[in-house]
Please model this.
Amino acid sequence: MEEINTTSSHIPEIADHAASPSQENQAINGLSKLSLVESELNTLYTGVGMRDLSSLGLIELRGNDALDFLHRISTNSIKNIVKGEIAKTIFTTEKGKIIDTAIVINLDEYQLLVCSRDHQEKMMIWLQKYVISDDVKLNNINGKYTLLEILGPQADSFMTLISGNIVNNIQLNTIKIINTEGIIFFLMKHHDHNGQLNYWILADPIYAQKLIRYIVENRGPFDFNLIGEETYNYYRVENGIPIAPSEINDLYTPHDVGLMNFVNTTKGCYIGQEVIARLDTYDKVQKSLCGFTFSEKIDDYEKFALFDESNIEAGNITSTIYSYKFKKSLGLGFVKRKYCEEGTILTAKNSDRNPIRVTVKKLPFKK
Model:
């Protein structure tokens, strides 16, 4: 893959020492009275943030049949992606339930599969199960790379500042080798769950540390922040973004989670294809991912079963937060289709508290 050199004279030189993340956040926030989480959330909605994705799982596939193999056992069309392209796909059971979602990156000599760390072991076992006579070798390569995400409405302009105008020439769903001031890394450009443009950076850990320092010290006029996992969890619930293992697991189908854009309905057979196609053809999807607002404040990460006014089970809530943006407790979860209409009132129950009234909301949440 061709290396792109983006050394640029308009970016200041790196300082001798980079501040720690906490020091950087304090410097960025100045004398603001906002909490750290509120400040980081504000950045995600109005500026640009950098998030460490190294907790995701990385699986390397080598061999002449790797792309055909992934194409055959996952939901999307994979076999024709060329060097430097990426594809988002889902691995499902014979019953159409989700094992995991993944991003396939074609690096020519090998393919890189980015999945959730929670499901990585299951993924490895599942993949190996179907390697029969294929020329495919699987390796867990966690730790080989550092994976970073640049996200927020200013992400595109910010990456142009860091790596020059070449960023504008990178096509969606592709990955390129970038050389910024001697720091070499892969840069991937794609859309997030709700269609917002963001970037992934894949780098050797040593280069990644240099790049993090470089980005922090050369953020220029941008509203930039380092984003922690707690903050991102607030953001992703507010924006209706499902993750493993909370919403992405083997209890649900791609239809349930709203991930049919990762399913190619014309490519032919894959594992689980008959069930997923039947659900679509005969309109048999039974539940959907929805949002919920609570009538009172609850603790983050609580889970609930949902019931209608006749005490018939209606679904369940899988993720909860107290939203600083909306000033109320929010949840994500699944309800039967007849309860999906905006404004439907249900009752949330668990063993730790009295029943609470919740209201069904479309995703992402809106004021």
Q: What stands out?
A: Residues 205-217 form the longest helix (13 residues). The CA atoms of residues 146 and 206 lie 9 Å apart. Residues 4-21, 26-33 have pLDDT under 50 and may be disordered.
